[in-house]
Structure formats: C-alpha cells, structure tokens
Amino acid sequence: MISVDRVDTDPALANGAARGTGHYRPPALVRVVAAAPYFHDGSVATLPDVLAPERLTSTFAGGFLGPGPVSGHRFGTTLPPSDREALVSYLRTL
C-alpha cells in the first residue's frame, strides 16, 4: 500500500467515504505496456503521457476524455526527461 501523500494526488479521492483508506494499492507492473489506457478512468493513452508534466497543463491534448489537464497521480512527472525515457523503456521490458 502506498500513502496518498507519496502518490501526490487528490486526497479527497483516497479518503472518500466510498473506498477511502488513505492509500493506493498499485497493480503489478508486469505487462504494464499492454494495460493501456491508464488510470482508473482510462484517461491517459500512453506510458510516456503518464509521466509527462504536460499532462497536467490546460494545453494537453493526449487524454482520451478530451483536451485539457489530466490531474492526479503526479508521481514521476518531475523526473528529468532522460529519466522519464529510461523508466518508460524499462517498463516496456516487463
């Protein structure tokens, strides 16, 4: 279990009355590349977009739910571009 504080997402979602525990249970990363689209609502199409800081801006056009920011789950968006690319390359090998 990963604390909502570490994931850096909307705490209201993790602490809500429906299923709120204050934690997330991340899925296994085996074959994560085949699990697209990503996030609970399928709003992000690709692994690079999951980590892209542009995903959080109003000009983001890569979301399945239309243009605009796809907020939440900011973990990894502050990595340098080379680290994001290396992480995506690694995830594609699993």
What can you see in these coordinates?
This protein has 94 residues and is mainly alpha-helical. It has four helices and two strands; from the N terminus they run E-H-H-E-H-H. The protein has helices spanning 4-7, 11-14, 47-51, 81-91, and strands at residues 2-3, 23-24. It has a two-stranded antiparallel ribbon. It is globular and about 35 Å long. The two termini are 21 Å apart. The model has no long low-confidence stretch (mean pLDDT 87).
Topology:
Blueprint: E1 2-3, H1 4-7, H2 11-14, E2 23-24, H3 47-51, H4 81-91
Antiparallel strand pairs: 1-2
Please provide a brief summary of the model.
Helices cover 26% and strands 4% of the residues.
Spell the H/E element sequence: EHHEHH
Q: Segments where pLDDT lies below 50 for 5+ residues?
A: none
Task: Please state roughly what percent of the residues sit in beta strands, choosing from under 5%, 5-15%, 15-25%, 25-35%, 35-45% or over 45%.
Answer: under 5%
Alpha-beta content class: mainly alpha
**How many helical elements?**
4
Helix percentage:
25-40%
How are the strands of the largest sheet arranged? Answer: 1-2
Tell me the total number of β-strands.
2
Distance between the termini: 21 Å
In round numbers, the mean pLDDT is 87
Shape: globular
Question: Biggest sheet, in brief?
Answer: 2 strands, antiparallel
Radius of gyration: 13 Å
Structure keywords:
94 residues; mainly alpha; two-stranded antiparallel sheet; 4 helices; globular
